[in-house]
Amino acid sequence: MGNGGPRATSLKLIGSILFIIHLVDIGCSYGAVLSTDTFNGSYDEYTSSPFDLSNRSVFDFLLLSIFRAVTFPLLTLLGSKYGAEVPFSLCVCCKVVDEDSDGENELDSGDTSASSEDLSRPLLDPLSKPSLLLSPTPSSPRRRRSRFTPSFFKGLVLIVLFLMSTTIQVYLGLRVSSYNFSNTLLPVLLCLSVLWINLSVYFHRTLLDELTRQKGLFLPKVHRHPVFLQKGLAFHWCDLCKTRIKGMQGAFRCKLCDFDMCIKCSKREDAAVVSENMLRGDKGVRTESAVSNGTYFGRALSMAKGEGPLLVLSFTLLALYCLSGLYLPNYQGKIIDRVVPDDSGEYDKSGFIGDVKIYLFIMLAQGAFSTVYSAAFQLVSRRLVFNIRNELFRKILSQDVAYFDGTESGRLLSRLTNDVDMMMQPIQSSLSSLISNAFMLVGGLVFCYVKSYRLSMLAFVTVGPIMYLWDLYAQWSKRLNRQMLASWAEGNSIASQALSHIRTVKAFGTETSEITAYNEANGEALRAGVKDAWGNGLTTALTSYLDLGTGVLILYYGGTLVMDGEMSVGELVTFQLYWNMMNNAYQNLQGLVTSFTRSAAGAEKVFSLWDNTPDIDPNDGAAINWDVEGEIEFKSVDYFYQMRPDNMVLSGLDLKIKKGSVVGLVGRSGGGKTTLIKMLLRFYDPKAGAVTIDGRPYTSLKVDDLRSYFGVVSQDTELFSKTVAENISYGMKPGTYTHEDVIEAAKAAQAHEFIKEMKDGYDTRVGERGSRVSGGQRQRIAIARVFLRKPKIILLDEATSALDENSQTLVQEALDLLITTSKATVVLVAHRLSTVMNADKIAVIDKGKVLEQGSHDELCKLNGVYATLVNKQKKKRENELNQEAADGQKQNPNRTASIDDIDKLLDAR
Ligand SMILES: Nc1ncnc2c1ncn2[C@@H]1O[C@H](COP(=O)(O)OP(=O)(O)OP(=O)(O)O)[C@@H](O)[C@H]1O
């Protein structure tokens, strides 16, 4: 796939724009020269200026424009020659794209998510083997020895460009301000040079960026931005295999966010499928797209749509606030002029009092407007954050189970907190500021020119360079902030895992290593933050000096104009106030642009999750409007988990579960029994085949409706950090049950006795994940849940497997009662033969297939795997009994359990 097309087009476009800008620039200067000839004598040189070059012509303007047209392109070419890096060579099969490209042009059309076929497809086309082999290009000996890197050269060129343009602008500003024009064309033509200079600098910089853009590797299914081979990443971890990167070897790194991929993973054909923390649905990985400032701003505003009336009120008040603010400097100037005596030495006292009154009135009105509008904006922004957090949490919960299989919960928490905060920061603090400052900027600009175009010309020469510096900083800061967010997410993930497994951490004494890992992740964030702080400080210092210099120039020239009677003191003060107003507004806007650019980094992650519609969409499918009987069928079901596509878990599995029957699933560990239970709950859809309920395919039904007919007791019941009663009634709608129902359910589940013995009874809090109750008690609470819920289909996934013999007996009794009293369809995964013997149907599952199925008696007659197990069990029991009789021992319950254990019997086969 070629990358020359779009790039060449953009280069041509920028080149043409630059050609036109330089042409117009020279044209304007030439026009100015002609106009001085034409109107010779119609302007006066302002001779008191120290910058008066005794030059009655503006020929230097023309010379400088030609100088710019020659030197700026030369500098750009020089920068592109020595500033471009080509760090590695790529084999023909790799997709190479430009740095910063979102790679859209490189993608096949419509390829936004991996289809099920894609899952088995390697990272790159297998035909293009050797696939992703990248080798660092040995740099030329001259380059390797050189201490000056290409980015150093590029930076040098940018600095020279910046210094040249600033110097020329200041010189031109001084020249223009030293003239007293009497025709209007000449000042307009000369003032325009500032615009052309800034435009040409901007486009030359863009051209240089384009020309020096590094070739990156774009792997849309692995990462949303191109990655670049880089050395010295010893403190980084590969985001795919989670191993530490070897510094000497280097790794692929994204320049826009903190994504690293080790060389080994870059060669993995399944990297696109099995990587962690990718955006994925049930059918596979989704492509995440980058978010530009414009998109971010547009979407943030569209989220505020619901706040329309309040926003209109705020905007109206804001407009009034700005208008009143624009009038104030005018009255300040007037008041100052009133205290200067007129030619006859008289003071206009009544005029003075009148102006002070008006000034006071405007100020009071401005204060009132500002109080109300800022309160309204605060309200809007707080409601916005509230809505976004709620909606994002809803979106996260609606994601496919497959998404959670590949994502750490700490990272998701980070999206809900850090990313949303970062994304909302500028909107929360500065939506109003953005508008008021834009108002003040335009208003201040107009008033400045109205008051004095010459002072304005002088003042505005530094605006371009300041903009240039802030723009550079904003881009840099955006990258650092992306890295910071990613490191925080990593830190959150480490912390949340360590905290949720705190007992394991303590038992294994791994506190120090967890703390070190957490420190490292936060250290990365700190390093990025420190760099950002330095960049901000430097940019602020440079722009402040430029600003101060302009202030001094205004005072000096303004003072000279006042002394020469060209301007009154009041007018100079008014100009200065307008200039300050405009300058402050401009600087605030710059800060806002920077923070918007920075916040787009947070928005990128939030929006990608926001836009990710799950494949098993809760909004899809028909509502269940018939009386569900609970007959289920697996028809030729194939399934493999996304994160392990090589492991075919179910292959061509057929199983019919009759309504109201009890079906036991037995088989070797890893055979696919739990996967069947997950598919019954529609956590995953089959890769091939179908699952039906009462003859209707699962995929045609609303998933929430479907799940409401199930009750589950799983291997590892995790309770919520709530009371016992709340845990038993979890998932029940208020008003559909009473406290007595809860107690009845607990009694049926053999849980009432131990609950009663607790100090707070049913109001006892069970701790996080039910850590304050025993395993057997947890299971009985889970069984009580099912008793209360009275589902049509009950799923029991080895509910007693992790318990000791005593607890097992209690739980088993509760389960037996559940099975016999409920008229539900029951599917139970069993590890003990005794659990399934009474089932209506027993299915022996192995390697994702049903090996044999039937009742206990039927299977015993079949003489297959199940019959062998039963015979083995009988034989073992006889041996044990004989042994016990010989030794004169009592029956050992643990030994009895081991005889019953299907896994052990299978292993003994
Ligand atoms: N979320 C997952 N992602 C990837 N592979 C998985 C996942 N869950 C299970 N597996 C794999 O799928 C296969 C079937 O697992 P399953 O849990 O269904 O087996 P099982 O028969 O219930 O085993 P056991 O009796 O030990 O619980 C196993 O090889 C397992 O490693």
From TrEMBL:
<feature type="transmembrane region" description="Helical">
    <location>
        <begin position="152"/>
        <end position="172"/>
    </location>
</feature>
<dbReference type="InterPro" id="IPR003593">
    <property type="entry name" value="AAA+_ATPase"/>
</dbReference>
<keyword id="KW-1133">Transmembrane helix</keyword>
<feature type="transmembrane region" description="Helical">
    <location>
        <begin position="12"/>
        <end position="33"/>
    </location>
</feature>
<dbReference type="GO" id="GO:0090374">
    <property type="term" value="P:oligopeptide export from mitochondrion"/>
</dbReference>
<feature type="transmembrane region" description="Helical">
    <location>
        <begin position="309"/>
        <end position="328"/>
    </location>
</feature>
<dbReference type="Pfam" id="PF03107">
    <property type="entry name" value="C1_2"/>
</dbReference>
<dbReference type="InterPro" id="IPR036640">
    <property type="entry name" value="ABC1_TM_sf"/>
</dbReference>
<dbReference type="InterPro" id="IPR046349">
    <property type="entry name" value="C1-like_sf"/>
</dbReference>
<keyword id="KW-0067">ATP-binding</keyword>
<feature type="domain" description="ABC transmembrane type-1">
    <location>
        <begin position="312"/>
        <end position="598"/>
    </location>
</feature>
<feature type="transmembrane region" description="Helical">
    <location>
        <begin position="358"/>
        <end position="380"/>
    </location>
</feature>
<keyword id="KW-0472">Membrane</keyword>
<dbReference type="GO" id="GO:0015421">
    <property type="term" value="F:ABC-type oligopeptide transporter activity"/>
</dbReference>
<feature type="transmembrane region" description="Helical">
    <location>
        <begin position="456"/>
        <end position="474"/>
    </location>
</feature>
<dbReference type="InterPro" id="IPR027417">
    <property type="entry name" value="P-loop_NTPase"/>
</dbReference>
<dbReference type="Pfam" id="PF00664">
    <property type="entry name" value="ABC_membrane"/>
</dbReference>
<feature type="transmembrane region" description="Helical">
    <location>
        <begin position="184"/>
        <end position="203"/>
    </location>
</feature>
<dbReference type="InterPro" id="IPR011527">
    <property type="entry name" value="ABC1_TM_dom"/>
</dbReference>
<dbReference type="GO" id="GO:0005743">
    <property type="term" value="C:mitochondrial inner membrane"/>
</dbReference>
<dbReference type="GO" id="GO:0016887">
    <property type="term" value="F:ATP hydrolysis activity"/>
</dbReference>
<dbReference type="InterPro" id="IPR017871">
    <property type="entry name" value="ABC_transporter-like_CS"/>
</dbReference>
<feature type="transmembrane region" description="Helical">
    <location>
        <begin position="431"/>
        <end position="450"/>
    </location>
</feature>
<dbReference type="GO" id="GO:0005524">
    <property type="term" value="F:ATP binding"/>
</dbReference>
<protein>
    <submittedName>
        <fullName>Uncharacterized protein</fullName>
    </submittedName>
</protein>
<dbReference type="InterPro" id="IPR039421">
    <property type="entry name" value="Type_1_exporter"/>
</dbReference>
<dbReference type="InterPro" id="IPR003439">
    <property type="entry name" value="ABC_transporter-like_ATP-bd"/>
</dbReference>
<keyword id="KW-0813">Transport</keyword>
<dbReference type="InterPro" id="IPR004146">
    <property type="entry name" value="DC1"/>
</dbReference>
<feature type="transmembrane region" description="Helical">
    <location>
        <begin position="58"/>
        <end position="78"/>
    </location>
</feature>
<keyword id="KW-0547">Nucleotide-binding</keyword>
<feature type="compositionally biased region" description="Low complexity">
    <location>
        <begin position="115"/>
        <end position="137"/>
    </location>
</feature>
<feature type="region of interest" description="Disordered">
    <location>
        <begin position="877"/>
        <end position="909"/>
    </location>
</feature>
<dbReference type="Pfam" id="PF00005">
    <property type="entry name" value="ABC_tran"/>
</dbReference>
<keyword id="KW-0812">Transmembrane</keyword>
<feature type="domain" description="ABC transporter">
    <location>
        <begin position="632"/>
        <end position="872"/>
    </location>
</feature>
<feature type="region of interest" description="Disordered">
    <location>
        <begin position="104"/>
        <end position="146"/>
    </location>
</feature>
<keyword id="KW-0677">Repeat</keyword>
